[in-house]
Amino acid sequence: MKSLGLLIIASVFWIPASADDLQLIINGKSFHLGGENLNESNYGIGLQYDFSERNQWVPVMTFASFKDSNNNTSRYIGFGSKRRHKLGTGRDRVNLDLGIIGLAMKRPGYNDGKPFFAALPFVSLSKAWGGINLTYAPKIEDNAYAFWYLQFSFKLANL
Q: What is the pLDDT of residues 114-126, one digit of tens each?
């Protein structure tokens, strides 16, 4: 936990001065590809910070806490980038974002409870008020399962 806390504190100094959106993340649902008796209601909360768009690329920082597939509290912090595709214009515009997030995660029952690192692909559909994020996590060990992970985001502020 101490290492994850230090990573969060260090990340504050990485944030550039030009910011865009701060979003509330509501963690929700996983869909395991195989396996039984797993918690697929992965409720939790977090924040996502989308930096200003640069040539259709949006840098992202996120962190959250949620109930994992084994009903343990898991936490992560991640940094990444997403390629923005604007579908439509004005108030009706929908953003289709494709990206990758590198994260440090801490999960009880995995890696002796120490933080570990991963990189995961994701897709997002969003409008001005918020959106839906879908992430894919591949199988990482013999007794684990690949899964899709669904989150919802709600804009808190435009900074």
A: 999 999 999 999 9
